[in-house]
Design a protein that fits this description.
- With 588 residues, this protein is of the alpha/beta class.
- The chain contains 20 helices and 14 strands.
- The strands form 3 sheets. Strands 6-8-9-10-7-11 form a 6-stranded mixed beta sheet.
- A hairpin with a 2-residue loop joins β2 and β3.
- The longest helix is centred in the last third of the chain and has 28 residues, at 531-558.
- It is elongated, with a radius of gyration of 39 Å.
- Adenosine-5'-diphosphate (ADP) binds at residues 155-158, 193, 195-201, 297, 331, 334, 359-360, 363.
Length: 588
């Protein structure tokens, strides 16, 4: 419930209460005239009034012209005796009890509502009454064991992730084997990957394979505006889970609750922290005998609170990658089994033409094709799939990044540019992996892994880094004659690194060992910089970058052949590793 609805509810309640109170005071019809008793008695005795009704000690009657009158009689019933002989007709009605009941409800009703609101807001965080109310319920969806139909065979193209989860399935199937061996099975598994890569599907498959119930809830369901609700929901979820154990509890979008504490400071923070704390408390309270595995999913592992990733919590992290070309082919085939396709479908080519598609988008594509065919009749053909692909690509709500063939090519040269420079520079960190599968905002990535962990870096190491960073942009420039925006981040890093080499680490002979920091307001440390010093520093940074640029260019121009071959390989496989690259490189 957001703030708008909250306000609306409050105003509605105030309005209703007002109307009720007004009604209460409006009990009498307003057109009733009151007549003194003496006059009333006279009119009865003279026969002007022929008929009246007595309720308690009030007489009411209507005149021939339709006017209502009332008169208050003395409380003593004997007062009616004198009228007996006058021929008047007297009705006596009992006091209207029902009316009294209504009135008392009307009086108490607003009070009850106010009490209700008060309870609603005042419930103490973590208080027991949370359980009594529906807000505190977890809202989790339960899929019972008979209904978990998803199997590992339904998940395609992410074999490594699957392999890591097989152990969990074994544990859920036969926990004694593990407990006897004294093994510690993770209570929490964190699936980490872009949207639509099959994280939910994997979690369901674990439950399906192990034949256990599957609870699913989204992290955002925990976060409500009322303090304590989230924590109470977490408690409820785990209590439910324990009743159904062994089972899987799946928390989608865990970043909604698990965001780094004390980052950001707007409202709702307290609530989120409490929810997160409750989650940690519950996970810590787990015993191996509880046989509950928490599977959480996120695409923002970087913003998760470190406490969540500590041992005993989500200490098993499984990357669920965007599928590569082979993975895409497998996913397409899995989904194609559920529809009617012609026999001559060229899955390999289709997989090739769908760079950057996630599993969800591929599934969507098959579904689009099936829809088209359903209207027309017949089987899905290569052309249908092509049209469906364009539809998905143009889809308005594109969550992950889908790239064109041309972009893919530029990215491939760019990444190989980085890799090639790194490979040819003696002493640079070895290239571990090159990939053109988009991840987050990056179109591609070149990963270098140092041979050993380093804590300080030499000038030549840093200079190598500068060259490597510039390699991507250079490759684009040499091959295509122009530069794309894809190098933005590289340039930023180059500038940053070069200025730190000059200003922080004293690596420029011209400037010498002096620290020049950006002034951060009054009283910032560091020498006062004259304009000429600033110019000199700038010149030095520029000279350093120029030097790296020349070196990188030389490497690329001397190895154009290798670059073409590696790029071709990368375009074909989308991800290449050290082993793939090795045969192309002559050792230096
Ligand atoms: P996530 O939870 O990572 O956002 P989902 O698991 O909800 O993604 O994926 C949505 C749908 O996309 C799945 O139901 C499935 O049909 C399809 N899908 C995604 N990844 C795969 C995969 N690796 N293999 C088969 N189908 C997939
Ligand atoms: Zn780059």
């Amino acid at each position: 419930m957001n703030l708008f609805y909250k306000n609306l509810t409050i105003w509605l309640i105030i309005g209703l209460t007002g109307i009720l109170v007004l009604n209460l005071f409006k009990g009498q019809p307003s057109n009733t005239h009151t007549m003194p008793y003496t006059e009333f008695a006279k009119k009865v005795n003279t026969g002007v009034i022929t008929h009246f009704t007595v309720t308690k000690n009030i007489a009411t009657w209507q005149t021939s012209n339709g006017k209502n009158f009332r008169s208050v009689l003395p409380a003593n019933p004997a007062t009616l005796a004198p009228f007996m002989n006058s021929g008047v007709k007297i009705d006596i009605t009992p006091e209207r009890e029902a009316n009294w009941l209504l009135k008392s409800i009307a009086i108490w009703f607003p009070v009850l509502i106010l009490l209700g609101i008060w309870f609603f807001f005042m419930r103490k965080p973590g208080g027991q009454n949370g359980k009594a109310m529906a807000f505190g319920k977890s809202k989790a969806q339960l899929v019972d064991r008979q209904d978990s139909k998803v199997r590992f065979s339904d998940v395609a193209g992410i074999d490594e992730a699957k392999e890591e989860l097989v152990e969990i399935v074994d544990f859920l199937k036969d926990p004694t084997k593990f407990t006897e061996a004294g093994a510690r099975i993770p209570t929490g598994v964190l699936l980490h990957g872009e949207p639509g890569t099959g994280k939910t599907l994997l979690a369901k498959a674990i439950a399906g394979e192990a034949g256990v119930p599957f609870y699913s809830i989204s992290g955002s369901n925990f976060v409500e505006m009322y303090v304590g609700i989230g924590a109470s929901r977490v408690r409820d979820l785990f209590a439910e889970g324990k009743k159904k154990a062994p089972c899987i509890i799946f928390i989608d979008e865990i970043d909604a609750v698990g965001r780094h504490r004390s980052s950001g400071n707007t409202g709702g923070n307290d609530e989120r922290e409490q929810t997160l704390n409750q989650l940690l408390v519950e996970m810590d309270g787990f015993e191996i005998n509880d046989k509950i595995i928490i599977v959480a999913a996120t695409n923002r592992i970087d913003i998760l609170d470190q406490a969540l990733l500590r041992p005993g919590r989500f200490d098993r992290q499984v990357v669920v990658p965007v599928p590569d070309i082979l993975g895409r082919e497998q996913i397409l085939k899995v989904h194609a089994e559920k529809v009617n396709t012609e026999d001559n479908i060229d899955w390999k080519t289709i997989a090739k033409g769908t760079p950057g598609f996630s599993g969800a988008e591929l599934a969507n594509m098959i579904n689009e094709a099936a829809l088209m065919v359903a209207r027309r009749g017949g089987k899905i053909s290569n052309e249908d799939l092509d049209i469906a692909k364009d539809k998905v690509m143009m889809g308005a709500e594109r969550r992950s990044m889908i790239i064109t063939e041309e972009e893919k090519k530029v990215t491939a040269y760019h990444e190989i540019g980085h890799a090639l420079v790194a490979l040819m520079l003696p002493g640079a960190d070895p290239v571990h992996k090159v990939s053109i599968i988009p991840r987050g905002k990056a179109l591609g990535i070149t990963m270098q892994l140092p041979e050993t962990e380093k804590h300080s870096h030499s000038y030549s190491h840093l200079f190598n880094n500068l060259c490597t960073l510039l390699g991507g942009r250079l490759a684009e420039e040499i091959i295509f004659g122009e530069i794309t925006t894809g190098s933005g981040n590289d340039i930023e890093r180059v500038t940053d690194l070069a200025s730190r080499m000059v200003c922080e680490w004293g690596m420029s002979k011209e400037i010498g060992p002096m620290v020049f920091k950006q002034p951060e307001g009054f009283g910032a440390a560091g020498p006062i910089m004259s304009e000429s010093t600033m110019l000199r520093i700038n010149d030095e940074i520029r000279a350093l970058i120029d030097k790296a640029h020349i070196k990188a260019r030389k490497i690329i121009e001397e190895n154009m052949d290798t670059m073409e071959k590696l790029t071709e390989l990368l375009l074909e496989k989308e991800t290449i590793s050290r082993a793939d690259i090795a045969p192309f490189i002559t050792p230096h």
